[in-house]
Amino acid sequence: MFCPNCGKEIKPDDLFCTSCGTKLDFLQQVAQEQPEFLEEAPQETPEQGTWQEETPQEAPQETQPVQQEPDDQNEYPEDYPEEYSDEYQDESQDNYQDDGYYQEDYQDYSAPPRKRLPIWALILIIVGGVAVIAAIVIALFFFILKPRIQGPDLPTEIRTEEVTTTEVPTETTTKSDSSKETTTQATYPKKKWATAKDGLLLREGPGKQYNAIYLILQGTELTIDKEENNWAHTTIAGLTGWCSCDYLTDTPPEIPQPTTAVSSDPNTLVYPDPWIDYGYHGYVNTTDGLMFRLGPGTNYTAIDVIPYGTEVAEEGWYGDWIFIKYNGRYGWVNSQYITASGGMAKPAIYLYPETTQIVSVDVELSEGTFTRTAPLYHNGWNVLAAPNGTLTDLASGKTYDYIFWESDSEPAYDWSEGYVVAGKDTRAFLLDILPKMGLIPSEYLEFINYWQPRMQKNAYNLITFQEECYTDVAKLKIDPQPDSCLRIFMAYKAIDAPVEIPAPKITPFERKGFTVVEWGGAEVH
């Protein structure tokens, strides 16, 4: 008898093939049903030439391990290959034929190979895993680590109160004070004022190695939105940059009045510092005439007497004295004996186009006439305006910082809202209010230098800022039309004592595109 799998000779009572391990229990059933197939085929004897049946001789027995009958749980000996299942054996029986044992269409019933995931699926799995890890890290930081580092998220007022009222040892107090100071400094935006006498540089970055892009004048109010390494970040005149915190203060600095070159010789002419372009003009109001001196004081030599009613124009000032030109000579007169001519004094028009271009400007007065203009008025002004504000008069070729005009117009001003300011506080008041209204340092410092000398000598001033009362009388026409336009006109009068008056509401001004700014004023008697 032979193994149907490998063809090796096997014994009738073997349960497994000793060569391949095939289970042979189905052969017992074959032996019962068709025993003739289990007999060996007759072999031809060469001597007789006939076939004869020989009694099967037992082959030499080899020592074989005792095979155990498998139990009902299909347990097999350890050397039985796992890949041959009962299903495979049944198939082997179906392939059994009368002419021998053979197996058709051998199949490997081992476990099928695992399918590989496509690359896009692997990428999605990796990206998803990274996203989950990132979300976990962020959640840990915001909900666990950050509260431990920064402490509870309490309002600034509560933190300050806790630091102030807690009694702790000296070292801890120092730390608490430092924490309190840090909390205060971290509140943005906040106001600061420039203190550098020669101006504070605005730079592109937080350090001296960065380029300077603007000069911030002393006393300029700044809005600081953050600080870094003792440098403050701010925006001024449309430029954003950094300035040193060493030259910033929390309160407006005391700015000295313009000084003159002191001369010990009363016979030497003293020149103003600074000079004023197109200062206010008025007339002498003393009937005995006004002394014209070499310096701003009675100790200086008088070089002439200016008759009553003579019109003079200011070109500089120091204290209560103004620097003028009379009969071809420069000198000083006391401003208390000069009455302003009235009308609209020194409206200055600034032009800031986005690109250098020719601009036509005209002011149409519904009452009064022009008394002075610069450049000269020829049915308006035609100038070449640059983005930095420099103006070139096309008629004369001269350059100007602004267009200046004055008129004798005296409209009925509105005094229903305003401010009462002591004369000695004039400069501080103007330094505070003008930036809020939208003027930048180069504009409001020119405004202050023009109006401070005549306002500070009064006990009090009732100050108003006119709107329709001014714009209806002096209509401004500009071609091309600007994108934003600001017109500030101050009317004031001297008073002996304070009065109650409501303050007006200030509307912030936003500079955008081609910007036009005008300021002016009038002293009303």
Give an overview of the whole structure.
With 525 residues, the chain is α+β, with helices and mostly antiparallel strands. Helix content is 20%, strand content 28%. It has eight helices and 29 strands. The protein has helices at 26-33, 86-94, 119-150, 156-165, 170-185, 426-437, 441-455, 468-471, and strands spanning 43-44, 51-52, 190-194, 200-203, 212-216, 221-228, 231-236, 239-244, 248-249, 281-284, 290-293, 302-306, 311-313, 316-318, 321-326, 329-334, 338-340, 345-352, 357-365, 370-374, 381-385, 391-393, 399-400, 403-407, 419-422, 460-466, 474-479, 484-495, 515-523. Strands 20-24-18-29-28-26-25 form a seven-stranded mixed sheet. A hairpin with a 2-residue loop joins strand 7 and strand 8. The longest helix has 32 residues, at 119-150. It is elongated. Residues 37-56, 66-107 and 149-185 have low confidence and may be disordered.
Observed structural traits:
8 helices; seven-stranded mixed sheet; 525 residues; single chain; five-stranded antiparallel sheet; 28% strand; alpha+beta
